Amino acid sequence: MAYVITQRCCNDASCVAECPVDCIRPTPEQREFANTEMLYIDPDTCIDCGACVDACPVDAIFSEDELSASLARFADINAAYFQRHPLEADLAPMAMPARPPKELGTLRVAIVGAGPAACYAAEELLKRADVEVDMFDRVPTPFGLVRAGVAPDHPGTKGVAGMFETAFKRDAFAYFLNVEVGTHISHEELLQHHHAVIYAVGASTDRHLGIPGEDLPGSSSATDFVAWYNGHPDHADSVYDLTGERAVIVGNGNVALDVARVLLLGPAELGKTDIADHALEALRKSNIREVVLLGRRGPVQAAYSSSEFLALGYLPGIDVVIDEKELELDPASQALLDDSEVEPSLTLKVALAHEYAGKPVNADNKRIVFRYLTSPTEILGSDRVTGVRIAHNRLVETPSGLIAEPTGETETIDASLVLRSIGYRGVALGELPFDDARGVIPNAAGRVLGADGEPLAGVYVSGWIKRGPRGVIGTNKTDAQETVEHLLDDFTARKLTTPTEDRAALIKLVEQRQPEHVDRNGWRAIDRIERERGKAAGRPRVKFTSVAELVAAARKH
Asked: How far apart are CA 37 and CA 16, in angstroms?
């Protein structure tokens, strides 16, 4: 019986190296060109050894005979990938990456940020070198979007944090949380204490629609809404009007799907998760029964992954509603779908849309409504949101690809809440170079570039601030490996300046500048207390949602 990878997959390829018969694809080397949302196991080659199960950080792998009803289809999804990409196993031993020479001494690296990109970089450094890693983050908790961005009803995805916790038990690793670089310590001071600094700060803001009414009360970003229901301290005091019956989300990526689920899942389901208490209480009183997702292009170009789209069909008391007429494809989209080289995940995505369109709708159920080929032109209302005016689009072929252009037909959708979910965006960091058009720090494969186009000594980037906000959690692993490889090359080539201060001096400096910083023991205390609170409530954890609460908990170690 073969093992099967399901939609929980974080795609970090931890399982690939553990497979003794090399039957998991795509490999990290192939992933850049694979354009696939997850990993797959070849059922004809799998020997049912379970090595991949032990390696998976997010519990995404199951034996075929143990798949639940909501996951059963993934057996066919895994098989379909290998029908399109027949397996050519490579059982040659993997080359061990070189370590810097011992005579260079201990490499000291500061990592700014504590999300997945930062954690993968730290993990790689700890494996590859005699190193001391100091991780900084402005909030008192680590793991970034794993803690504050993953939907609470997806607890398996958060399991990657446990893998990081295991790697970070060594004394070579230290947390400096609730410490803001640029406020409590400068970039120059980091370089005085370290050979190199890796900035892995993600993309902390969101893109705007640029249409009238966007700033009305009741209009917000999905980024902020996600941070609110996940208990991020910056957003714990936000208030959202949930008194209306309809919400509109502009965008149809996976974040939009997360928000739609959270808005419609009942308190019985959400009450089993680690959703923030303030959000759980507000959602208990919510009147929202319908969420409409607007996508400017068609079902072939929809931004959500097929696995997340499939999961919507198993939500209790919620119908997925699609008008069959909106699934009629333009010639270019149909040609793409008919191409023999098309990825199975794209075929599945369109097939699922037709399946949803053909299902009857229960009048007593809540609804997630997908609208394709629509763009908002104005958010309506005088003192608060009352609706959205949308334009109907058609897809037009251009030399640069298919673009959506308005047909001239418009429509109004009544709504009391509008959330834009059209992408994250990086922001400039102090005096570091910044590409405002792309929202990234200019770099060459992780080495930060100065105004002259040459690498800045000892300064590196990883994650979204390096490549832009795309990919899943695991995409950051190969990204971090690339950055770390170049950092180690520069260290070995003696291109990095030896720090003049050590970790003891760093700790003394941080204690002077920020007495309320949180170290590893402090984070462990927060984690322990949140889990204890959760156990008492029958939940995974009950989060602290203010900096003051988090710092107070950290002092109880």
From this structure: 15
Instruction: Give the angle subtended at the CA of 292 by the CAs of 286 and 293, to the nearest 5°.
Output: 125
Strands 246-250 and 447-449: unpaired
- Look at residues 260, 342, 269, 334 and name the one whose alpha carbon lies nearest to residue 295: 260
C-alpha torsion sign, points 440, 443, 446, 447 = negative
| Pair of tokens at residue 136 | 């900084």
Tokens 């050519």 -> residue: 88
Pairing state between β 455-461 and 447-449: antiparallel
36: pLDDT confidence band, cut at 50, 70 and 90? confident
- Round to whole Å and give the CA distance between 298 and 327: 7
| Lowest mean pLDDT across 109-113, 130-134, 152-156, 228-232 | 152-156
Question: What mean pLDDT do residues 542-554 have?
Answer: 98
Task: Indicate yes or no: pTM above 0.90.
Answer: yes
Question: Any residues with CB less than 8 A from the CB of 84 and at least 6 apart, and which?
Answer: 343, 344
- Predicted local confidence at residue 440, as pLDDT: 96
* Three-class HEC string of 392-449: EEEEEEECCEEEEEEEEEEEEEECCEEEECCCEECCCCCCCCCECCCCECCEECCEEE
pLDDT for the residue numbered 32: 64
Average pLDDT of the chain to the nearest whole number:
94
Q: In whole angstroms, give the CA distance from residue 385 to residue 242.
A: 12
What does 68-124 look like in DSSP terms, one character per residue? -TTTTTHHHHHHHHHHHS------SPPPPPP---GGG--EEEEEE--SHHHHHHHHH
Tokens 């104005």 found at:
378
Question: How far is Cα 179 from Cα 512, in angstroms, rounded to an integer?
Answer: 12
Q: What is the mean pLDDT of residues 161-186?
A: 96
pLDDT at position 263 is 98
